[in-house]
Amino acid sequence: MIYKALAFAAMVASASAFAPAARTRASRAARMSLQDFLEAEPYWDQSTIPVNTYKTKSPFIGKVTSVKRIVGENATGETCHIVIDHQGKMPYWEGQSYGVIPPGTNPKNGKPHSVRLYSIASTRYGDDMTGNTGSLCVRRAVYWDPEMGAEDPAKKGICSNFLCDATPGTELTMTGPSGKVMLIPEENPETDLIMVATGTGIAPYRGFIRRLFTENTPAAAAYKGQAWLFLGVANSDSLLYDDEFSTVLKNYPENFKYDLALSREQTNAKGGKMYIQDKMEEYADEIFAKLDSGAHIYFCGLKGMMPGIQSMLESVAAKKKIDYEQWMKKLKGNKQWHVEVY
């Protein structure tokens, strides 16, 4: 009976991709069976979150089911969405990461390659809603040598290229899941979430947004807050999962906000390139008000984004005559400040 229920849930979820999007949670619930077989009891209890189920010395062997390029021709680099079959043996929660150990050895020391961590880009149910898969969002790391006038293969990212070149059936040596920093605080369903990403830092937020707005889970049924996504990329062709986020925005305009910083296509208030901190500054009053009211703010992406963001926040705080250090101390003390950068 369990397998029939899972098959039915997967079938309905698949069919919903071709049906008109639900306009309300009620209409969605009427169309879909409840997706709850991977929930804690109660659903918001984080005490049972799986952590480090598999480690470097005893890893899990997963299999790639699909690899898809998800950026346009004019994107600044190649980014792929990779779906991995874990057979339900490597469960995770939204906001966690998987570790991947690429094959081969490190030429510098002759030892196996070290683990590379990737934020998981799907909910605990996976893109197919069976609970047997997890997805990664991976940008192929390459190095352009100006003297050669070409990419230097000796300096390419070992693991990202391995993943982007994978084909269905490719085996992955995996560890994890790991991390508790980026979890959703679901106990209070009215909590506002501010999600800030650059590039593939979008991965955990795709899981957040699907859980709160796309899937028919207890968390989605209960959520009454507002989730606000800020995404910074170079240009429109570099946008990630834009169709999914735009659909959620259309269906839940009161509960979801979506703002973009396109550095090569937009200009900021000073006439310069529009970076993520510039887009956030446009809404500084609202962001500060939300945080003062208990909102949680998340940052995921390249660590280089943080100095600019923190400088902007400190500048805004000074204008508001707020003691920035004390303000930050309060946010961190209340566990409202979540950072996962690389």
UniProtKB/TrEMBL annotation:
Pfam families on file: NAD_binding_1
Listed name of the protein: ferredoxin--NADP(+) reductase
Family according to the record: Belongs to the ferredoxin--NADP reductase type 1 family.
PROSITE patterns associated with the record: FAD_FR
Amino acids binding NADP(+): 119, 139, 200, 263-264, 273, 301-302, 340
Span of the signal peptide: 1-17
EC number(s) per entry: 1.18.1.2
Family matches, as InterPro entries: FAD-bd_FR_type (IPR017927), Flavoprot_Pyr_Nucl_cyt_Rdtase (IPR001709), FNR (IPR015701), FNR_nucleotide-bd (IPR039261), FNR_plant_Cyanobacteria (IPR035442), OxRdtase_FAD/NAD-bd (IPR001433), Riboflavin_synthase-like_b-brl (IPR017938)
Species classification: Eukaryota, Sar, Stramenopiles, Ochrophyta, Pinguiophyceae
The reaction(s) this protein catalyses: 2 reduced [2Fe-2S]-[ferredoxin] + NADP(+) + H(+) = 2 oxidized [2Fe-2S]-[ferredoxin] + NADPH
Superkingdom of source: Eukaryota
Cofactor: FAD
